[in-house]
């Protein structure tokens, strides 16, 4: 261990994270009255004792330390406040365990891990328990009261069963299990008689097993559900142990508990005899997935069950296939014929694939590189004599061992075992390297394992950049340039996330420089708005061409700036002004009018008042007044046509109101044409003609309107009078068409005779007189008219007419 500890571990509050995690020490935690210079010191070290952080503890008295699953240090104070620190001593956040804990103070605390995250359990001075199963999503649970509990329990621990956190505590000879609903008394099956107190208890790493140390010196081991006893061991020591933890491998049938006193360590299990070790120094036990880490001021060791593959290969006089293969490889290096003898022996038993697999598996559990290489060379040697042995397991083991050896290095200080590495996964390991700011090593591992960029190198570079922006001793320009040179256009890296981190560190200008490298405007703009750089955000949104993004910025600017500044900003951005006008047309009409007034845009202002006269006003006086305002605006805009049209509309509205008053019926909001038509349909022909004169409706249009209206009324007599009133400006073919449309062939024939020569054929065909139409077409000697008549001939009734046309066409074509 690289640390220089002057105090004994027993004089410090100690917390060590699992999976080869860091160690936290709080020196001199017990002295409450001390000068400022003698305040406790919180120190954080790697597992190899390399200092990571050191800070003077200036907060309240601390009761317990613990590490979360994300390697954040949780410091539980006496007042129930939990302070959270990062691996490098940076303060992250704090939270309270509730008012009851604050009032009654904290007697003891435990930090535990579940599948939901990391939890905190508190024992208060009122001898009540408060628990939160996940500090990331804090939900406090006040556990039920233990009946008759007047003093602190002799020992207690947390357990997780059926996805629910429980508390197991001992009060004299009794055990109680607390869940969210009730307090239940439990009894371990098969417990030796005479127990008057439980001195220590320990739950296994996976919460499946429980160990209880009694005042009689017996250690009871069973399932955590307290339904089955595994074994019981008499250690013949009645003194309460300092620590007791489980030591077992995943899927192993062996069960063992490690018990530590001041200078003695004992491993007990199913065997009648335990294994004892003498400790030279005060030590601390850290339970792991597959063993126990034991560290002191000078050493850091790992106690674990020997893996089956290693035991088979290395036990004395072993004849296991892996052992024989290892010997064969060693003899082969010596150029001895014994190598062939060992190989033949393995092959005769058909165990060569098993031997290769044993050597590969044993290599994974070895910590010394030389022994790893020896076993892997043996596996490679055996593979040469197999035809179809899949190489994946060998290659994968070589890769895993290279990664493990790199992180086990003294300077890195993450002593993971192979089992822990597989449980942790490579992604979590990379996260932990990033947390320690070991970016080069993390990138080398990603490149060596050929991980996808988004999951590997890109993600690590993004973390590096977020760390880089926190270096306040480097100028913004240099930091931005360094980040861009390193990251470039690396896929999966978001410059906006890095800029957000820079802004969070108070480096706004650096954040803006970093956003210049962000290619996605949708990521730039929200952060610029958050930084109150709204005008720059508007420019970026306009450059992107994304109208939704522009609208977002405009609404933000509208709420942020006063009305005058907002309008001035829009005047400098024509595209934004146009989009805002579109928005106002649908949402804020008064704002739109103000915009037009400010810009002296009389043309649009006139159009606005025209629309407003129909949208908002119901009274005729109000509408006319709005139209008069619109006409004035059009005159100012020098648009005389629009102004005259508006004045005509005003006259029409007044006239329509007068007609409604005099004649009844609905005239308002009709067009001039519809008004004329309505008057004709009402029999007001003179009024209709006067209206046509007033509004200068051309004769042709008036004749069409009157023709259509009289036909709709089926007033054929009036229609005939109308047709004879003067020469029709639209001809008489429309009369034929309108009559036929009303299915009145009789009336249509009256007008067919009056149709001019150029439209005679068409009129006759409309009334169904094919023979006369043929005669007219032949008389005109017009081939197009002949073809038209021929197309209307039917074989049964018009055969003679068709023949006559065919002969006439032939004569025309000859000439």
From TrEMBL:
<dbReference type="GO" id="GO:0097352">
    <property type="term" value="P:autophagosome maturation"/>
</dbReference>
<dbReference type="InterPro" id="IPR006925">
    <property type="entry name" value="Vps16_C"/>
</dbReference>
<feature type="coiled-coil region">
    <location>
        <begin position="325"/>
        <end position="352"/>
    </location>
</feature>
<dbReference type="Pfam" id="PF04841">
    <property type="entry name" value="Vps16_N"/>
</dbReference>
<keyword id="KW-0458">Lysosome</keyword>
<dbReference type="GO" id="GO:0030897">
    <property type="term" value="C:HOPS complex"/>
</dbReference>
<comment type="function">
    <text>Plays a role in vesicle-mediated protein trafficking to lysosomal compartments including the endocytic membrane transport and autophagic pathways. Believed to act as a core component of the putative HOPS and CORVET endosomal tethering complexes.</text>
</comment>
<feature type="domain" description="Vps16 C-terminal">
    <location>
        <begin position="493"/>
        <end position="811"/>
    </location>
</feature>
<keyword id="KW-0967">Endosome</keyword>
<dbReference type="GO" id="GO:0031902">
    <property type="term" value="C:late endosome membrane"/>
</dbReference>
<dbReference type="GO" id="GO:0055037">
    <property type="term" value="C:recycling endosome"/>
</dbReference>
<dbReference type="GO" id="GO:0003779">
    <property type="term" value="F:actin binding"/>
</dbReference>
<dbReference type="InterPro" id="IPR016534">
    <property type="entry name" value="VPS16"/>
</dbReference>
<dbReference type="InterPro" id="IPR038132">
    <property type="entry name" value="Vps16_C_sf"/>
</dbReference>
<keyword id="KW-0653">Protein transport</keyword>
<comment type="subunit">
    <text>Core component of at least two putative endosomal tethering complexes, the homotypic fusion and vacuole protein sorting (HOPS) complex and the class C core vacuole/endosome tethering (CORVET) complex. Their common core is composed of the class C Vps proteins VPS11, VPS16, VPS18 and VPS33A, which in HOPS further associates with VPS39 and VPS41 and in CORVET with VPS8 and TGFBRAP1. Interacts with RAB5C. Interacts with STX17, MON1B. Associates with adapter protein complex 3 (AP-3) and clathrin:AP-3 complexes.</text>
</comment>
<comment type="similarity">
    <text>Belongs to the VPS16 family.</text>
</comment>
<dbReference type="GO" id="GO:0005765">
    <property type="term" value="C:lysosomal membrane"/>
</dbReference>
<dbReference type="GO" id="GO:0042144">
    <property type="term" value="P:vacuole fusion, non-autophagic"/>
</dbReference>
<keyword id="KW-0472">Membrane</keyword>
<dbReference type="GO" id="GO:0016197">
    <property type="term" value="P:endosomal transport"/>
</dbReference>
<dbReference type="InterPro" id="IPR006926">
    <property type="entry name" value="Vps16_N"/>
</dbReference>
<feature type="domain" description="Vps16 N-terminal">
    <location>
        <begin position="1"/>
        <end position="396"/>
    </location>
</feature>
<keyword id="KW-0175">Coiled coil</keyword>
<dbReference type="GO" id="GO:0008333">
    <property type="term" value="P:endosome to lysosome transport"/>
</dbReference>
<keyword id="KW-0813">Transport</keyword>
<dbReference type="Pfam" id="PF04840">
    <property type="entry name" value="Vps16_C"/>
</dbReference>
<dbReference type="GO" id="GO:0005769">
    <property type="term" value="C:early endosome"/>
</dbReference>
<dbReference type="GO" id="GO:0033263">
    <property type="term" value="C:CORVET complex"/>
</dbReference>
<protein>
    <recommendedName>
        <fullName>Vacuolar protein sorting-associated protein 16 homolog</fullName>
    </recommendedName>
</protein>
<dbReference type="GO" id="GO:0006886">
    <property type="term" value="P:intracellular protein transport"/>
</dbReference>
